[in-house]
Design brief:
This protein is mainly beta. The protein has 2 helices and 13 strands. It has a single domain, classed as Jelly Rolls. Strands 1-2-10-7-12-5 form a 6-stranded antiparallel beta sheet. Strands 9-8-11-6-13 form a 5-stranded antiparallel beta sheet, with no helix packed on it. A two-stranded antiparallel ribbon has the order 3-4.
Length: 181
């Protein structure tokens, strides 16, 4: 059983997958084709990525430009993140809207459609994030925006000086200079 909740960006959903618990521990099906049916999409997930992050690491906000843009299914298998999303789809009713959501449950899966910049702040050491993509990674198509140069309505609840970011991410442009879909 999969529960679906639409978030405050158009066509972004939080899914909750039923977990089976007993005295041995727990079990859940982290992915089945039923996810596509619940979302009402016809997507072939062709790449899966995994990151391991220390506390206060920020990764993002990333996206791939067309025609290599990616939809993603994001799940935290260990730890806790503040997940950040920004709608870059010009024709969307939520264009330039940003949201954040805490992901920490192994049974929560975040669906991010094409045209959304995505990033996350690791809130614990040894945080593992898995995400499926419907397109391969193309380095020449990668892009992003720096959330700290942009006017995003995000409650980081952290001192920016304690963040750990790659040099590449620090040099990303602000939202108004970024690519739109």
């Amino acid at each position: 059983m999969i529960k679906k909740q639409e978030l405050d960006i158009d066509k972004v959903y939080l899914l909750n997958i039923k977990t089976f618990n007993d005295k041995r521990g727990s079990f859940l099906e982290t992915y089945t084709d039923n996810i596509n049916k619940v979302l009402g999409i016809n997507v072939d997930w062709i790449q899966e990525n995994e990151s391991l992050s220390h506390k206060n690491v920020f990764r993002g906000l990333h996206f791939q430009k067309q025609p290599y843009s990616q939809s993603k299914l994001i799940r935290v298998s260990n730890g806790k993140i503040l997940d950040i999303l920004v709608d870059l789809r010009k024709k969307s009713k939520t264009f330039k809207k940003s949201i954040s959501i805490i992901l920490e449950s192994r049974s929560d899966v975040l669906y991010v459609p094409k045209g959304i910049a995505h990033g996350f702040l690791s809130l614990e050491n040894n945080t593992i994030v898995n995400y499926k993509c419907d397109n391969l990674y193309y380095p020449k198509s990668e892009s992003g925006l720096n959330p700290f140069k942009s006017n995003l309505d995000i409650n980081w609840n952290i001192n920016e000086k304690t963040l750990i970011m790659s040099k590449k991410d620090k040099n990303l442009p602000h939202l108004n200079e970024s690519y739109s879909f």
